Every structure is written in C-alpha cells, then in structure tokens.
Amino acid sequence: MKYFLAIDIGASSGRHIVGRKEGGEVRTEEVYRFPNGVKEEAGHLVWDIRALLSHVKRGLKAAFAKYPRIESLAIDTWAVDYVLMKGESEVLPCYSYRDGRTKGAVEAVHAKVPFEKLYARTGIQFQPFNTVYQLSDDLARGRLDGVTDFLMIPEYLSYKLTGVKAHEYTNATTTGLVNAQTGEYDRELVEALGLPAHLFGKLSRPGDSVGALLPEVASEAGGNCKVVLCASHDTASAVEGIPMSEGAFLSSGTWSLLGAKLPQPVCSDMARTYNFTNEGGVGYVRFLKNIMGMWVINRLKAELAPEKSFDEAMELGQRSTFQGLVDVTDARFLAPASMKEAFDGCFAEGEKPRTAGDYFACAHKSLALGYKKALEELAACTGKKYDTLYIVGGGAKNKWLNALTEQACSVRVMALPIEATALGNLAVQMKE
Are 14 and 78 in contact (CB under 8 A)? Predict the structure, then answer.
C-alpha cells in the first residue's frame, strides 16, 4: 500500500495528514497538528517562519515514525504572503497579509498601472494585501535590493526541505502578477511596475516534482520521500478536494471563498466591478469572490463568550431576535482590535446589538446575505444559474449558518464536513 503526506497549513493551525487509497476511497489520518498565527513585531503583523519550518520538520518525523515508507509529500498554505531571499538567506520579517503596510503601495501601483488594466491582464480581484502591493511596498522601502528570489510560503517551505526553489501556478495567480490568458508571470506588467524581472521565473504546475529531501532533513526526519507541488494555495487544494461536477462552491474558513470552476477566465468589466477573481486551479479557473468568513464569528466568540463552547455560544445567537445586519466585506472587519467595536461602528447608538447573542445573530445572518449577493453576482458574470452550493471547510460544520445560507440563497446546500484541502492535496499526489 502506498502512503502520501499532505502538509496543510492555515492561518491558525497546521496539520500533517497521511493518506492512502483503500477500496477505491482515500483514507486519511492526522499524525501531527500545530498552532499558527500572526505575531506583532516592531508595530507590524508578521509570521514566525522559523517556527513554521520547525513544526513542518517535527510533523515529518511523526509521519515517518508511524509510516516509514511515504511516497511523497506536498505542502499547501494560505495565499499572497512570501519570503524574500538573498541566495540562501531569508530577508526577514515575513509580513502577514493582515498587516497594513500596503496603504501607500496601492496608490503607487495604480498610478503606474490603473486597476482596470491590472484586472484586464490578470483577472485578479482587488485586495489591499495582494502580493503585487506587498512587493511594491518592498520596492519603495529598498527591501528588494540584492534580493535573488521571492518564494510563496509553501514553496519556501519546500525549498527548505529540498534545496530547490520553485514557483507553483495556483498560488502564483494570487500575486496579481500572472497573466490570465498565458498562465505565466506577466513580464510587461512586472516591467511597468519596476519590479526586478529575475524574481519571476517559469511557473510549475500541480503534480510537478521538486525533488527528494535534503540528506540532513531526511536524517532528522527519519525517512526520505519525494516532494511534489500540489495546488499549493490551500483554497485551490480545497476546491480540488470537493466531489462536484457542477454547481457553485463555498470554501468556508477564516475567509469565505464562493465561486465556480470555469474552463476560461472571465475578465469582464462586470466581473471587475463585482470584485471577482480568476485564480488558478488544477486544469480550470477558480472564478470566485473573497468574502469575510468565520473570522468574524470566531473573534466575536473569543471576545464575548470565551468561557462557552462554540455550540453553546451559537445557541445564544439562535435565541436572539436581533435583525440588524452589516456588510461583511467592509474593511473594518479585517483586523480590528475589537471585533465587537467594529460591529458597533456599523450602527447608530440606539440600534447596536446588546447581548452576545445579538452579535452572533448579526454575524451569521450578514454572512448568509453576503453569500446570497455573491451567488447573484456569480450568475450574472457567468450567465449561469447555480442551484447547488457545496460547502467545505470549518464552516461546513456550522449547521445554523448552513441553514441560513440555504434559506437566503434559495439553493440546495451540500455541506461536506470533510478535510477538502488535505484531500485535494493528496489527490494531486496520487495521480499517476
């Protein structure tokens, strides 16, 4: 029997999951889990990249201890963030997308290349934390001087395991620097923005091999295997892991990503206006919209009901009669010091939520209506009606939110409480 290892790292935790095919189905086992999160450093939000690498290696050791013969491993993480390199040395800190450093860079980029032109070439929605703006901030502050490479987080971790630097297509599309038609870095765009051309190499595809573990890594881990590229953007892996042939999908986690698989990108004025994005998939385009997700609910719970279980806290919301709503796409919810105060700021003094349950009710109903609006926009952009919505990720376990979504969107909700990201990661590795 062949065993494969998916290393799936999200913004709050990471997992090492061993998979195998048995009876025509993929069986999985989690062998290691570790915490992750941003930390504040010199007034900025950054990732502890060294701790991440340490956990990746510890998880490898745990996996080989239980399964001495592993065929391959692949790593997926969140998108847009990266590590700058000078040869073999990192340029730290590794900034988090939640850091606010790109405010000036957005205007600087659009002064060189208006967003309408950016979108027409890349099909990538506007988000102030897109890699294109982060790299432009680096350029303005001299951080790119002497830099030989930039590696997205999963490719950086693969490099530390193998010594091979790669650029994977699905994750690269989230930079806002990949041409939607060619599927490669857009050289004209890179030149127009004044970014160093040598940073943008040829893109590899999911399934491409990176190489074997370095001898010192293999010795430390207690085993060796091939390292391959999965769809290294975790949402790309999650979509690949959904058992769907049609319909729309919702990857419901810290973020909600709602969209559909398309054979070709849609870079129309309507798609740009609705802020849809054309991200790379495994042989298809993931045409989707970024919506705030479980982040708002989880932060409200941590602030208002930390002593209660998630189910107990949500029961408070289900009993609430509060009808107020917020726009869940509002930037105020991205990284507020207080999520409660961010919600309060959306209401007049006498109309604010009063109880913890009121806040939970407001968050859930607002998310459901956010999904309804996104589905309507998806249909308008693609000219297709969507009757089924497949939900995966942590939010798939939120039965209350699923019911509200089904009611608001007038669709059949297929909630799949599966490890879709790990399954998609493994699916790429298992293809022969």
Answer: no
Question: How far is CA 80 from each of CA 47, 98, 129, 172, rounded to the nearest angstrom?
Answer: 13, 11, 7, 8
8 Å CB contact between 102 and 128: yes
The pLDDT tens digits of the residues spanning 224-241 come to: 999 999 999 999 999 999
Q: Which CATH architecture has domain 4-235?
A: 2-Layer Sandwich (3.30)
Q: What's the pTM value of the predicted model, to 2 decimals? A: 0.90
CA gap 151, 394 in Å, rounded:
28
Structure confidence by residue, pLDDT tens digits, 168-215: 999 999 999 999 999 999 999 999 999 999 999 999 999 999 999 999
Amino acid identity at 321? T
**What burial letters (b/e) apply to 287-316, b meaning 16+ CB within 10 Å?**
bbbbbbbbbbbbbbbeebbeeeeeeebbeb
Contact 125, 277 (CB under 8 A): yes
Handedness of CA 320, 256, 158, 45 (dihedral sign): negative
Listed by start position, the domains of the chain span: 4-235, 244-415
Q: Determine the Cα–Cα distance for residues 333 and 274; give it in Å rounded to an integer.
A: 19
**18 beta partners:** 5, 29
Give the DSSP per-residue string, 316-340.
HHHH--------TT-GGGSS-S-HH
Domains 4-235 and 244-415 share a fold: yes
> Which residues, in sequence order, are CB contacts of 432 under 8 Å at separation 6+?
none
**198 beta partners:** none
User: Which run of H or E residues covers position 280?
Assistant: strand 277-280
Instruction: Tell me the catalytic residues.
Output: 234
Closest alpha carbon to 247 in 411, 417, 418, 399: 411
The amino acid at residue 27 is R
Can you state the angle between helices 103-112 and 115-122, rounded to 10 degrees? 80
Alpha carbon of 112 to those of 26, 109, 156: distances in Å? 48, 5, 29
- Judged by phi (left if over 0) then psi (alpha if -120 to 50, else beta), residue 75 lies in beta
The CATH superfamily holding the domain 244-415 is: ATPase, nucleotide binding domain (3.30.420.40)
Q: Could you give the CA distance from residue 378 to residue 249 in angstroms, rounded to a whole number?
A: 11
- What distance lies between CA 413 and its chain's CA centroid? 22
Predicted local confidence at residue 346, as pLDDT: 97
Span 4-62, pLDDT tens digits: 999 999 988 999 999 999 988 999 999 999 999 999 999 999 999 999 999 999 999 99
